[in-house]
Amino acid sequence: MSVQTDNGGAANAAGAGGLALAVLLAGIAGMVDAVGFMRLHHLFVSYMSGNTTQFAVAAGRGDLTEAGSILVLIGLFVAGAAGGQLIAHGAGSRHLTAILAVCVALLTTAAIFGTAPAPMVLAMGALNAAMHRAGSVPVSLTFVTGTLVRLGQGFGDFLGGRTDGWVWAAQALPWLGLVAGAAIAGAAYQPVGPAVAWVPVGVAAALFLWSLAIPAPE
After folding, report:
1. C or N terminus of the chain, fewer CB within 10 Å?
2. pLDDT digits (tens, 9 = 90+) for 107-162
3. Which of 21, 9, 43, 3 lies closest to 137 in space, CA to CA?
4. Is the dihedral of CA 147, 152, 155, 160 positive or negative?
5. Strands 137-138 and 133-134
6. H or E element: which one contains 28?
7. pLDDT tens digits, one per residue of 175-189
8. How far is it, in rounded angstroms, from Cα 76 to Cα 58?
9. Which of 193, 216, 173, 178 lies closest to 45, judged by CA?
10. How far is it, in rounded angstroms, from Cα 44 to Cα 67?
11. C-alpha distances in angstroms, 140 versus 23, 26, 58, 87, 150?
């Protein structure tokens, strides 16, 4: 019995640590997306649902130049996600460290060159390979629609009596992380301008160093 309790405690601790990590990773995504949003005049570097809608609207209006530029962003995001997946598989148990190293390099490039959106989009695509679960809780890092759907469905199951736990409520944490990151970048943009791009670089670098000392997430 004591062994089961210890295992349960370890699993709970791992889940809590994973959720904290997911919140911080989502915070980076929120910062980068906010910076990209302000630079790209209401386009996104991680929220591809919004970009897809704007691409379709531009194409429907016959504005092929704008549609083409948005399609490039979508293609870069997919390429980043594919590259991140390859890197994660190649790195094995150190996939978090490897993905964060790539993100730091790409975000640093974006900060140095000021207006370059491509490295930011690639970084956000790759970031999704950093982790997929926090214990038993599936997490999304750079987009919130799936997170909010899981939160709403979990709440519905709770109201309907199909679950009596609060695990579903953990889905709100990465969303809050992304909101907080975007809010920080938005607040910092006015006083420091484009230099705000260095904020997510610093956070990603700190998480990279942290990842060297913690167990790899799923």
Report:
1. N
2. 999 999 876 789 999 999 999 998 887 777 777 888 888 888 888 998 998 898 88
3. 21
4. negative
5. antiparallel
6. helix 2-39
7. 999 999 999 999 998
8. 19
9. 178
10. 14
11. 10, 8, 28, 18, 10
